[in-house]
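Replying to the earlier thread about multi-chain prediction with a worked example.

Input:
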Amino acid sequence: GENVEQHPSTLSVQEGDSAVIKCTYSDSASNYFPWYKQELGKGPQLIIDIRSNVGEKKDQRIAVTLNKTAKHFSLHITETQPEDSAVYFCAASRSGTASKLTFGTGTRLQVTL
Amino acid sequence: DGGITQSPKYLFRKEGQNVTLSCEQNLNHDAMYWYRQDPGQGLRLIYYSQIVNDFQKGDIAEGYSVSREKKESFPLTVTSAQKNPTAFYLCASSRRTVESNQPQHFGDGTRLSIL
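Result:
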């Protein structure tokens, strides 16, 4: 089955700096890669996703890049703000699997003033 | 507003007791999912359902059961056979298509603890 590894497990940045979280996946057939943000005591919220037919997607301060050859994808947050502090999860899935997601173990991002 | 409602927010179980977690969605989604989240770990799939009256086991189904009698509802029962039930349980839903995966939307979870 699919295996998703996520690094780092914790990340501390100063407000205004950029943050990068990286994930690798094992199943070359995976073709959908969402990123979720989870605040304390809440459910994960989808913040951006990418499909394997594109290499990069951007939404304001958030971007995701995908390298299918190396089987890794990354989340980039620019101009970080205190409200970006949360746990971020990457996930992967493949077509024909009922949209089942395999999640990484999460990255706790702390944005300090 | 459309969304996913999980109840209760906190639940306590005695040894040997079955408990049922509620999940209701008004997004008109066909597919629904249950995940378990433990500290420092990612989400792990317990059960999923693509359509009413049909469901499949996920990666960690032992000790759990589900039903899908209505499109809007997908309750999860944690049985006494689940020896380590203390966790944060998350329900999700998505549209269902054959050709491509669809984003999953999550509720705010139920935290289950053992007395």
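The two ends of chain B are 35 Å apart (CA to CA).

Feel free to reuse this layout for your own posts.
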